[in-house]
Amino acid sequence: MEHTVAVNKKVITIRICIYAVCIVSWFIVVLLTGLHTGFHTFFITAFFAFRIYRNIRRIRKYNDCITSEESAVKIRPVSDEVIFTFLTPLAAGFIFFFSIIFTLQIPTINSFSPLQYKFSKLYIEKAGGTKTDLLPDKLPETLTYYNLWYFPGFLQASPMLTLDLTTDDKGIAEIQSEAEKLAVASFDLEKYNVDNENEEVKAFKEWYFKPDDHGYTNDTIRPRTGTAGKEDGRGTIYIISSNGDWNHQHTKSITINFDTNTVTYGA
């Protein structure tokens, strides 16, 4: 009977380790990607911490059982414990974790560290299912400000993604050169801030968007100009693409403010 107790203790210890790894893994993902996850982190940590607590209590109970043959007889057979050693904690963790993820969608990302950039992009594409082809493969060498913000699509809402950068003149020149290659149109930032339906915008809409079979034209564009668009100064909004849909609007753009050396990638 003592042998059964000892094996059960080892099995439960393995479970505790699995739960602990789940918690640590989640925090590593948060640190690498910049996830904005207060709500998710609380419930995920609380769930696994509670499971660890319950299993620690079981070990203490088994320690007491060593001196009591009557209590030890009630312990689950060793074979059953071995079967459910990995299955129970992994199944419970899987169901709990993904029930939160799919109920609330994946957490938003609000990263202020360039070190998280590659991992943030990877997470957005793999977990969020949102393409990040607009974002640069490599950040400028000099950065005085960085913020990557991502909000996943929820119900009928489209995903929202912005990358705000402040860099030096060299970085601005490189980004401008790339933006000019990709753009289908460009608007003067100051004019757009005053009137987002000015003559430039109207001319672009007439050229870019075509009527559907019913003669209706979806021609809504809402470039996310971010930090670059909020600051006063000379600038350009480069339109990369737009679906024109007023209800599920999605416009890819790169906004450059030449007075503040600020760039916003918006999608």
Describe the 3D structure:
With 267 residues, this protein is of the alpha+beta class. The chain folds into 2 domains: 2-104; 111-266, no CATH class. Helix content is 51%, strand content 16%. It has 9 helices and 8 strands. Strands 1-2-3-4-8-7-6-5 form an 8-stranded antiparallel β-sheet, sandwiched between helices. A hairpin with an 8-residue loop joins strand 3 and strand 4 (160-166). It is elongated and about 80 Å long. The termini are far apart. Residues 1-7 and 67-75 have low confidence and may be disordered.
Compact overview of the structure:
This protein is of the alpha+beta class.
Largest sheet: 8 strands, antiparallel
Main-sheet strand order equals 1-2-3-4-8-7-6-5
The end-to-end span amounts to: 64 Å
- Note the run of SSEs as H and E: HEHHHEHEEHEHHHEEE
Salient structural properties:
267 residues, eight-stranded antiparallel sheet, 16% strand, 9 helices, 2 domains, elongated, alpha+beta
How is the secondary structure organized here?
Layout: H1 2-33, E1 35-36, H2 38-65, H3 69-72, H4 78-104, E2 108-111, H5 117-126, E3 145-151, E4 160-166, H6 169-182, E5 185-188, H7 189-194, H8 199-208, H9 226-230, E6 235-242, E7 251-257, E8 262-266
Helix pairs in contact: 1-2, 1-4, 2-4
